[in-house]
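thread: overnight batch results

M.L. [08:02]
morning all. the overnight job finished for the chain we discussed friday. pasting input first so we're all looking at the same thing
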Amino acid sequence: MFQLLLISTGGTIEKTYDELAGVMTNHVSVLDVMIASLDLRGVTITRQALMNKDSLDMTAQDHQDIAEAAFLGAQDSDGILIVHGTDRLAVTGETIYKRWSQPNAPRKPVVLTGAMRPYEMRRTDAVQNLTESLIAVQILPPGVFVVMHNKVLDFPGVTKDLSNRTFVKISEQQPAAENSGMMGS
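M.L. [08:03]
and the structure it wrote out:
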């Protein structure tokens, strides 16, 4: 049985529509609904709801708190999955990577994932990214990774690619002029 620690921090993946305000907010988590819809044989999930924030609202202390939760949670798990907002996901990934680089760090895989479009939207990427991450965390070696859009990228050096609405390694990022030419190809 694979013991998974799932740390939720909020972000677009968990946003729901607030009818009264007419906006998408991080008010109620839909992560449990997504997990319940999946057949997760052989995986035991311990869920830690650390915070429920848009990552644009995260502070340096929030990134440290997430890294600390992963560090402490690694003692009782085979892998860690962190559901996170995409705007500051790379900052948290780098923070965890630095912590995981210390000699006393646990040797477990840590996967960060999120969504560009909320679960409640018809064309969401939330379920795909969550499913890919649940598989990846079970087979990846120790390290820190982002898993989204059929890609696995290891830290350090991961960044959000705004023009393509995904993540890339900094070494793979192309100038904007080159990216726009690829769209029609």
